[in-house]
Here is the input.
Amino acid sequence: MASEGSIRRAAAAHGISQPAASMRLRALEATLGVVLLDRSRGRATLTQSGVAVVEWGEEVLNAVQSLVVGATAIRNRSRSRLRILSSMTVAEYLIPTWLHRFHTLEAATAVSLVMGNSEMVIGGIERNDADLGFVEGHSVPRALRSQVVMEDSLVVVVPPGHPWARRRRPLSARELGSAALVVREEGSGTREVLEEALRRHNVAMDSLLELPSTTAIKAAVGAGSGPGVLSRLAVHTDVAEGRLVEVPCGDIALERSIRAVWPSDREPSVAAKRFLRVIDERDGVS
Here is the structure.
């Protein structure tokens, strides 16, 4: 529900009826002893406890996904293998499409994927824990080589009832910096780009909540915790469908590059080169 915006859409996304989804949510509330949804205003919205459970549940789901991917890689260890580390935004909104294209052409190559923030990805690539990494930001350490695979930008979003949702004058850096924001944790590429953009205006960031996933931030913003700053990739559908409102920014430079990274002392593996070629063919890598 956190990512879909309503119980009805969440039920449809998982191929079950809305009553069945509501029943499962009530059963989860009973099991946890926590009220996850506020149903008092005619439309169910996440409570603050619900936002926290979404965040923790995201970690559980990621761990399960890593388990499934890892088990598959072990089962197919005799096949060609590609190990990928990826930042959360890239893993959630780009990697699935890239993997689908890749497996269409390279069905014999087993892929393992581990997700985290950009700092974790860079550390893993420096330790040779993976063949290829994907991060967001303006630069990477000298120990790594990189290739820009896509341009992205951050956007400020609020729920429809927030005062900023109706403003027409762009936000200044000082207004954004003085707001209590819902943002990613330290080490995130998203967080790094935001802090750097504000520093250029001699403004420090004020964070109300620091959360480790895009889904948790969207849920917190939607519940009214405060404005959020996220990738345009992550909020495009929410803005188009009216769940969130994009707030215009003035001279705040929130553009960034999404990069593939690998150690500078060696060429990417054959499988990694093929994966980059698949991205290049459809997305115009520069």
The mean pLDDT is 85. The first strand starts at residue 37 and ends at 38. The two ends are 36 Å apart (CA to CA).
